[in-house]
Amino acid sequence: MGQALAKREMDKGMKQYHEQRFAEAVDEWSSALKKMTKARNKFEALGNICLALCDLGKYRDALTHSGLQIEVANDTDDPVLKSEAFLMYAICNEKLSEFTKAISYCRYCLQTEKVADRTQSYAHLCLGNAYVGLSEFPKAWGSYTKALTLARTKNDKFLELMTSARVGHMFSLLTDYDTGLAYCCKAWDVVSGLPEGDPHVRYRRLLAVYIATPYRRTGRYNEAMDYCERASPRYESAYSIMSETGDRLGQVEALSGMAKTATSQRDLAKATELNVKALDIAQKIGNKLEMLRCHARLRTLYAATGDETLAHRHFSVLRQLLDEMELLCGVCDEVVGERPEKLDALRCGHFIHGRCSDYLARSTLGRAGKTRPCPACRRKSSENPALYT
Fold first, then answer.
1. What b-and-e string marks burial along 322-335, b requiring 16 or more CB atoms within 10 Å of the CB?
2. What is the pTM of this model?
3. What structural domains does the chain harbor?
């Protein structure tokens, strides 16, 4: 009797979840979980609860349930369940900006003896998101490429949607707004092709935010406003929401927006305070791109107030971060992402300016028909460049 009731509650919870009644779905699944005796049923219920809690922005609660899911998987000693549980734990950590932990658990997932194709695909997506969180863009590009390939091979529209959106966001972060917009529009085409009853339609709002950014940055304000109407609240409200959900990267972005607003209003003291606060959180989560941006803004602020010592200190850290992030074009040695510009991703994952691509297209050292190796990889290697094929 108890198991039959648990099954009905599971079905009811799934119906509520598809109707985006996430809190009610969590209640139904939690009630069903208490009645379950079989490990596999408990595993499924815990997984569903984790997904719904993530949709509610309750990432800490989701992480707790994900830990319970790992315990159940370990009890069954089923490698497939273990890989799924590791992935869910990685996703929860990525949502909480614990990017290093997310990467570790994605690796555990992929190294498990048996990994389902779908689990493998989403592990690469989570890896890409975590690498972007750490500003390791070459590694992120490699993971996203694998996820997109698997999405198209398996005709997984949701994976294609989310990966394309994330790749677009990454290129926008690197100020290649045209490429960023192209990927986001691909994702928009996918979500627009879904029937209204599809639960993934709700991701249109997230896409609207991603699409509005390159439109705004390239001066296409009318298009940006069209998407912003479907998007996000003001910085202060956004910061409050991000603090409540535990999204520390979101907190940094909201604080950065508040700091830029204060700068435009010539309130340099407040702008400095907000940038320092954003920098502190960015350092704690290891996001080098946001750290770089904070240091750049603080350098400008301290220079404006005549404190050349602090301005120089922030400039030195800024240059160090550029080297660590490998955001220097290997061809011209100029900064990648300093201004809006087309970028090309090489097979190794390094980025170069689109205008520098012709250099690599030429043959060299008598190797007709063969392109030059990546300058950044060649510089880091002790091999003779003539030995590259």
1. beebbbbbbbeeee
2. 0.82
3. 1-155 (1.25.40.10), 159-232 (1.25.40), 239-325 (1.25.40.10), 343-387 (no CATH)
